Protein: Chromosome partitioning protein ParA
Organism: Sulfitobacter faviae
Amino acid sequence: MSDLSRPAGPKIIAIANQKGGVGKTTTTINLAAALAEAGKRILVVDLDPQGNASTGLGIEVEDRDFTTYDLLLDDSLPQDVIQHTETDGLLIVPATVDLSSADIELFSNEKRSFLLHDALRQTQMDQFKFDYILIDCPPSLNLLTVNAMIAAHSVLVPLQSEFFALEGLSQLMLTIREVRQSGNKDLRIEGVLLTMYDRRNNLSQQVENDARANLGELVFQTVIPRNVRVSEAPSFAMPVLSYDPTSKGAQAYRDLAAELTRNNG
């Protein structure tokens, strides 16, 4: 029975696509920054051993003393693993390459698929008063991604505007269906987000038309343009909203944050 004295928890969204290079981490960082700019309290959970979300939010490798690995496998407390970023209201649980061995270590744990679910719902999380938790998943459908989907209320799927973009979605949808059957019956698709979109390119328009024809309202109205400022921002260890607040990329992520907030209103 749930504890009615506890505050309602944050909305947890897994940002997932087993295909690399689709803008998954970029979306995690910049959507988080846009939600924080709108006054929400946000936690990013970096679940990718590459640690790109951590780097992109300015957390140096030498400053990652406690990471998602510790949260999952060493029962570390949230206050030990959560760090502030340079963006007000945006915090992170960073990752390092240590996480790459977690898949093997998780396999022998009988609660292996529910470790992140339990970690994000412990009472010590209440003190942070997060509105949203965004989980940056690794580019594979492994046990870490399954942990994210069982922990999450919904999955946001970045989809690069390129040939064969829709083909990889079927395996992801199959995994989501399996997670619904095995551990999270209420998991839903938050939406499919078209990324790296070039309005001058017929292919981008064709991918958008195909996505909307096949997936309907699952596709966000907001599309993320191919924008040099979005590409440059990670090398300066900051979201594009800090790097160039007036860029088209920054405005697109503000629009996405507004659309997401409306959908969850």
